[in-house]
Amino acid sequence: MTNPDLTQNRENFCYRHPDRQSFVLCQRCLRTICPECQTQAAVGVICPECMKAERKAQTPAQRRARRRWGTSIAADGRPLMTYAIMAVTTVFGVLQLLLDRFFDFTDTLLFWAPFLYPDLTGAPFEPWRLLTAMLVHGGIWHFLLNMLALWMIGRSLEPMLGRWRFLALYLIGGLGGSVAVACIEPASAVVGASGGIFALMGALLVIGRHIGANIRGILVILGLNLAVGFFISGIAWQAHLGGAAVGALIGLIFARTRRRDQRTAQILLLAGLTVALLIIVAAVPPMVIRTMI
Fold first, then answer.
1. Residue among 137, 142, 210, 240 flagged as catalytic
2. Is 188 a catalytic residue?
3. 243-279 in b/e burial notation, b at 16+ Cβ within 10 A?
4. What does the pLDDT look like over 45-86, one tens digit per residue?
5. Which fold has domain 80-292?
6. Is 240 a catalytic residue?
7. Active site residue: 72, 178, 194, 210, which one?
8. Which residues make up the CATH 1.20.1540.10 domain(s) of the chain?
9. Mean pLDDT: which of 3-17, 57-71, 115-129, 149-163 is highest?
10. Tag placement on the chain: N or C end, fewer CB within 10 Å?
């Protein structure tokens, strides 16, 4: 900058490095900071002094989480994967509203166990339905409640796990929900992201326990939501139960393999869990279906 008004104004220079011109302000104290002094925060950047104050203000549970999870905490704290999942699900929700008037768009994505066993049922083989069912819902309220839960949990859990671990948890949890439906009630056709949502709750419960956080609140919410499925018709409690169980297992895997040198073991365990779910869905439901034919 050559404008004298800019170069002579000391507020346009970093308060810690007076020789470095900058036009970025700390979002907490509003002082000018150069790139070296900038630390990415949830919104904008903050200076080293404000970062130090923020760390001092953390609760014991937050400090334990930062120590134990280390670099797995997302750098900027923004739950971008949560927003991406919500955006994709919203697009399919809009398509569902528009296209169901002309053809059965929902029916092309919902999960129904017979689509996995063409030799037994005569239905076409469409295994992708194990996951595509998470993209469509049984109504506007079903969609809104699931997205609200995803937003509320994702803001806390994704920054702790990191974006790709969070996505893996959501998808494998959704798979676990569909597998549970196929094993317990293969005649039921289901839609909704509930398997993935309950997986997030199950993982948050286990991870919270491991870092010493107060988990009573999430335990009550998880228990109430599971109980509701048993008393209200039309709710696939099997998907809720399967998602929560798989999510708790994944939470345990994350909690026990959080160090950088354990990353390969973590990936192998997640892959092993996914394979185990596929083996279960290939072996157990056919035995149940044969008793129904």
1. 240
2. no
3. bbbbbbbbbbbbbebbeeeeeeebeebbeebbeebee
4. 788 888 888 777 766 666 666 666 554 444 456 789 999 999
5. Rhomboid-like fold (1.20.1540)
6. yes
7. 194
8. 80-292
9. 115-129
10. C
